[in-house]
Fold:
Amino acid sequence: MRIDILTLFPEMFVGVLGNSILKRAIEKKYLEVYTHNLRDYSKDKHRRVDDYPFGGGAGMVMMIEPIADCIEHLKSERKYDAIFMTAPDGKTFNQQKANELSMYNNIIILCGHYKGIDERVRELYVTEDISIGDYVLSGGELAAMVITDAIARVIPGVISDGASALSDSFQDNLLSAPVFTRPSDYKGHKVPEILLSGNDKLINEWRYNQQLTRTMERRPDLLQNE
Structure:
């Protein structure tokens, strides 16, 4: 899978892409991630990509031309399954969306910034707007990192133990069951006996019941999606 990220701050991605699961996914060639500096597509001698909004108002707006030129350049080289834009008013990103996107071959993620992006970018290029939550960030770079990481971990082969990703919270609209490791007794706080029993059937039943209980207590809204 290939992800092209359009951003004003490509240097923000260096640490994220160079560590942990994303690094391994790229090294194993399960994932390709490329960042593109939108300032490289500016026709302004100062490499400006923003201007004042028509009609007045606070803030600056990202111009359509650098974004369009970058997207057109990428589209001339390969076919894209979808073009996404990070935006506070987008559809909330979730585990099901991550699972869906992990099946795509090539996608573009456009990072929003400033007061917003010229609306014509949405009209002409964007397949879907994505938000990672009901709050506003300084830019879409952090959101793009979250989306990329969530996609990468469910690509088959990226995590050596594939069952680990499939048992994460939000798969099947349930939160994960609590987990424990050594020591089995920490200052009188003991691991549930069932987990030490070796009875896989009973352990799986216990975990499922814990998932239901946790979800009902902490995120009952997830069960309403069933």
